[in-house]
Specification:
The complex is a heterotetramer. Chain B contains seven helices and 15 strands. Chain B is α/β, with parallel strands linked by helices. The longest helix of chain B is centred in the C-terminal third of the chain and has 13 residues, at 215-227. Chain B is globular and about 55 Å long. Chain C has ten helices and five strands. Chain C has helices spanning 3-13, 61-64, 75-86, 112-121, 128-139, 142-153, 161-164, 190-204, 213-217, 225-239, and strands at residues 18-24, 30-35, 69-72, 95-100, 106-108. The longest helix of chain C has 15 residues, at 190-204. Classes of the chains: A alpha/beta, B alpha/beta, C alpha/beta, D alpha+beta. Chains in contact: A-C, A-D, B-C, B-D, C-D.
């Protein structure tokens, strides 16, 4: 892998916990790799599985999806619904041969600034080693004459 | 080099945008390519497919008259993905245009005849092209009557032109709004278009009727005109089928043995009678 | 009383306006058929080959306009009817399921409870062909599974036979039919196919009664039913419920338990 | 009279080699995973043996399920439009049946009616068809009712008829002669042979001209709604059909660049005629099923002077609920 490959990481995070946690990372001056593009959503319960699929289709090499720990959801049950959805979707994607190791699911609270930085660094390094997700990104041009 | 790509649109620059009514806009489009502008010609009644690049194509009539050179106009309501894409455009932006497609209103056969235009809402644009075409050749036609209605005063399109037609001595404009759609200053009639036509009781003698509007307007107006003595061959309308290619291939507008994009969109009531009621 | 006599009786008495079952079609193979008059009752057949899920017709407007319907109820039809009841699409009195016992005699299952009890007797086995394919897939690496599904889905032409033959795909306006936004590309290129089958399977998770009709309807033989089975298997294994088991089932993905177990969230 | 030759299996091998030597791919029916479909083959050995037809038709060689008609890049106030050159791969389709070979004319009739479709024409130009006559049929076939037959030459450049240990080869067109010229030694003048005796018998099922004449009066019959009660409104019949030509144009854009794609479409789908206003001229499946029949058996003859159906029966075999076209046409003819 040429060392010039810089993975694109898309992060879908919930507004109340992980986004705040990431904010704390910044105010605590904790460094983390800049490959991540953070998308703020009201709750993990709002994160539709198609958002992940679109991220891959539009060039993401890795995805982080993170929100409040169970029992901390601002909307009480958003993360519980998300968890069930992720359990089904992750199995389905794996069954279809999609590289689910490129997707990292996590709970990061508003107080876990350090965990956020660690998560991003670890995911970025892992995906950099894996290389670009070209087989997915080529789909849009496969089967078109 | 293979043949020409019949799906390739002309690039058009938006020269002007007029807000006609809530969600209804008129674009004045000019060809980006001078040679295309020069070569372009159309006749009233023809339509085109307009591209909002990134969203797709939509079918509208060419709302301007062929007598007005150097530009074409189209009027559309924002109802779907493409029209929403078009509605985001500003003056100076580029859109696409494929056409002119379809057949024409045979105005050269109507010399010396009275013309009766009956339309509603945003069905005025296809007839507006004919109206201005005839007004620019005014002496070729006898009386010109226009019955135009809309849900409310604000829903009337081409408001400035309606005033102009109202003031012209050689045009008899009857404007109406649906009951409840009038405003205090409204001086026109109040009532549904078919009712107003019934009150007007236009004479069928030496008269061509052009009717265009939503299915309900067509359903009520056509039998009325027949009752008033209008021959089925002298009542014209233009159909609004779902279209994608505009060149008689994709199959969408196929109604009976007719492809509305090639054999239409202009039909006489008599011709419509030979088509199955699938439009 | 056998199916033909029961159908004749129900139609003559006007208890139902149509009996949905099977009739011999091309090469004598059974195909869905509506007996709408006592005279048509004799056409109905049952037994091997009558394995399409007739419940896919029950939610359609033209069929509802026929009036009250009796339907030949194989286990997969009963599961689909119960799931449609659980999703409040039909009620007990809308459809009269006619199950057949071992001797081919009709058992009327007029209530959801009767249907549930009857179902408990006969679970649907996974076909040997599916079993072999699932085992083969189970032994594959991720890259091999990707290649397998990309190969299979490359034949998809998006005729939507899988969607049209599914009893649970009754939506008036399917996600595929929406273009604001155009979530899934309409053309059947590799991305459009992958995303369509991904959305279809996810929308059937916890709802698919594993009848396999989507797979058998596919004109190019893609085992798409294995995708919805996978989603349904996860729901059964992780959340302990199975679609079509009862008329009072909650939708698995809109309910939860605080202690749902998973092993991948950090 | 076309020039008729005998072609041994060995000569067919040589012809295959010569065709590929001439830079052309060969598509032929293959038996893989229990399915008979057209796939690239290198030698006759790979061609399926005992098959009636493939499921999907050869129309994909000239009218692919997805093709790009144009692309563009966007900048503020500027659109850079790209008119693509069609990528027509020189192709020989081998082993399709005479019915399907006759289908290309129906496609050509629409794609070149008044305006010419350069994408279709570029591919049709590069296509040659070597059909093989039928020694088997099933209940779905009705070619003889629509002007075709198990030995019909329409649409083929060379028609092979299985005969003794090789084939009877009728070289029918310039393209056929060009193929023959690639391996001329294999084509030995043949004695007079009764071709029909070598082929399966397909008795005509109905009088098509009479049916076509009768259809206008049957437009409002309940027959179509009753037949379509079983139809689930998918697109399988249209997409396997060698003569279905309807298509959709779809825009796909991603930020600053986009493309316009053509893909197969079906009048069986409810969205096909849906207006932006919500009005749908064909609101129920009965009207849509009727459109399929009328377009092929009434509107095509009126407009193009030919039928929009070659009686191959692919739609019947592919239909999940066995909408048997021949059976339903017979029902209409008798009603």
């Amino acid at each position: 892998m040429t060392d010039t490959f810089e993975p694109k990481i898309t992060a879908f995070v919930c507004n109340w916990c992980t986004y705040a946690g990431a904010d704390l990372t910044g105010t605590s001056r904790i460094k983390y790799q800049s490959n991540v593009r953070v998308l703020r959503l009201p709750c993990t319960g709002r994160i539709d599985f198609m958002l992940l699929a679109k991220a891959f289709a539009r060039g993401a090499d890795g995805i982080i999806i993170s929100g409040c720990h169970p029992n901390d959801c601002h909307y009480t049950s958003g993360n519980y619904h998300a968890r069930r959805r992720w359990m089904v979707y992750r199995n389905l994607m794996d069954f279809m041969g999609i590289d689910v190791e490129r997707i990292t699911f996590s709970w990061v609270s508003a107080a876990e600034g350090a965990k956020w930085a660690e998560l991003v660094n670890e995911v970025t390094t892992g995906i950099r080693a894996k290389g670009p997700y070209t087989e997915y990104q080529e789909l849009a041009h496969t089967g078109v004459e | 080099m293979s043949e020409a790509n019949i799906y390739l649109p002309h690039l058009m620059r938006i020269a002007a945008i007029t807000e006609e009514a809530p969600g209804v806009r008129t674009f004045r489009l000019e060809f980006v390519d001078a040679a295309a502008a020069e070569a372009f010609a159309f006749r009233t009644g023809q339509f085109g497919l307009y591209s909002a690049f990134g969203d797709g194509e939509s079918t509208f009539c060419i709302a301007s008259s062929p007598t007005r050179k150097g530009y074409i106009e189209c009027t559309f309501r924002e109802v779907g993905r493409v029209t929403a894409g078009l509605a985001d455009k500003e003056v100076g932006d580029i859109v696409g245009f494929r056409g002119p497609y379809g057949n024409v209103f045979p105005i050269d056969q109507w010399q010396g005849k009275n013309l009766l235009f009956i339309t509603g809402g945003i069905a005025l644009p296809p007839l507006r092209s004919v109206i201005w075409n005839c007004l620019d050749l005014r002496d070729q036609f006898k009386d010109i009557t226009i019955v135009y209605g809309a849900r409310s005063v604000n829903d009337l399109v081409y408001k400035a032109e309606l005033k102009e037609w109202e003031q012209r001595p050689d045009v008899n404009l009857v404007c109406t709004v649906d009951p409840g759609g009038e405003t205090p200053e409204w001086t026109g009639k109040v009532g549904f278009v078919p009712l107003i036509v019934e009150q007007l009781a236009p004479s069928p003698d030496n008269t061509i009727a052009l009717v265009c509007g939503p299915p309900i307007l067509i359903k009520l107006t056509m039998p009325l005109l027949r009752k008033l003595g209008f021959g089925a061959e002298s009542i014209f309308t233009t159909l609004e089928n779902r279209m994608k290619c505009g060149v008689g291939k994709c199959g969408r507008c196929n109604t009976g043995k007719s492809y509305v994009c090639k054999d239409g969109p202009v039909y006489t009531l008599e011709q419509l009678g030979q088509l199955p009621a699938e439009y | 009383m056998d199916l033909n006599e029961k159908a004749k009786q129900l139609l003559e008495a006007g208890t139902v306006q149509a009996v949905l079952g099977f009739e011999p079609g091309t090469h004598g193979a059974p195909r869905p058929a509506f007996a709408r008059g006592a005279d048509q009752a004799a056409r109905l057949v049952s037994g091997p080959g009558c394995d399409q899920n007739l419940a896919s017709y029950v939610t359609r407007a033209p069929v509802k306009r026929l009036g009250k319907l009796a339907v030949l109820a194989t286990p997969k039809v009963l599961r689909a009817l119960l799931q449609l009841m659980a999703e409040r699409q039909i009620q007990e009195q809308d459809v009269l399921p006619l199950a057949l016992d071992a001797a081919g005699q009709v058992v009327e299952l007029a209530t959801a409870q009767a249907m549930e009890e009857h179902l408990a007797l006969e679970p649907d086995p996974v076909s040997t062909q599916d079993r072999e394919l699932l085992d083969r897939l189970g032994r594959m690496t991720r890259a091999e599974r990707w290649a397998f599904w990309q190969g299979e889905l490359s034949r998809c032409v998006k005729c939507y036979a899988c969607r049209s033959s599914c009893p649970m795909c009754y939506c008036e306006h399917c996600t595929m039919d929406c273009n604001r936004p155009q979530w899934v590309p309409v053309p059947s290129h590799a991305l459009g196919n992958l995303e369509y089958h991904m959305v279809r399977s996810m929308h059937l998770a916890g709802r698919c009664v594993q009848c396999g009709d989507c797979g058998s309807a596919c004109p190019v033989g893609i085992p798409v039913h294995l995708l919805t089975f996978n989603a349904e298997q996860t729901v059964h294994a992780q959340f302990g419920q199975r679609a079509g088991a009862s008329a009072k089932l909650d939708y698995a993905l809109s309910t939860f338990r605080p202690d749902d177990k998973e092993n991948f969230i950090r | 009279m076309a020039d008729t030759y005998q072609l041994s299996s060995a000569s067919l091998d040589a012809l295959f080699t010569a065709i590929q030597g001439d830079g052309r791919r060969i598509l032929a029916p293959t038996d893989r995973d229990g399915r008979t479909e057209l796939n690239p083959v290198r030698n006759p050995g790979e061609v399926a043996r005992d098959y009636i037809q493939t499921t999907m038709s050869a129309k994909a060689a000239v009218f692919p399920k997805v093709e790009q008609l144009l692309s563009y890049t966007l900048a503020k106030g500027q659109v850079d439009l790209v008119d693509p050159e069609p990528q027509a791969v020189p192709t020989v389709v081998f082993g399709i049946r005479p019915c399907e070979a006759g289908g290309f004319a129906a496609l050509d009739a629409v794609f070149n009616w008044d305006t010419r479709d350069k994408f279709f024409n570029a591919r049709l130009d590069q296509l040659a068809v070597i059909a093989v006559g039928c020694t088997r049929r099933d209940e779905a076939c009705f070619c003889t009712s629509v002007g075709g037959g198990p030995g019909s030459v329409k649409g083929s450049d060379i028609l092979l008829t299985p005969w003794s240990e090789g084939f009877l080869a009728e070289v029918l067109t310039d393209k056929g002669r060009a193929l023959q010229a690639l391996a001329p030694k294999g084509f030995i003048p043949a004695p007079a042979v009764d071709k029909a005796a070598l082929l399966v018998d397909v008795p005509a099922a109905f009088d098509q001209p009479a049916l076509t004449a009768k259809l206008p009066a049957l437009f409002d019959a309940e027959l179509w709604g009753n037949q379509a009660l079983r139809c689930i409104g998918c697109g399988a019949c249209a997409f396997v059909c060698p003569t279905c030509v309807c298509f959709d144009l779809q825009e796909e854009a991603d930020g600053q660049s986009g493309r316009r794609l053509r893909s197969w479409d079906s009048c069986g789908h409810s969205l096909f005629t849906l207006h932006a206003s919500g009005h749908n001229p064909r609101a129920n499946q009965g009207a849509r099923w009727r459109q399929r029949v009328y377009h092929k058996f009434s509107y095509y003859p009126d407009r193009y002077g030919m039928l929009g159906c070659v009686g191959c029966g692919k739609c019947t075999r592919a239909c999940p609920v066995d909408m048997n076209l021949q059976e339903h046409l017979l029902e209409a003819a008798r009603s």
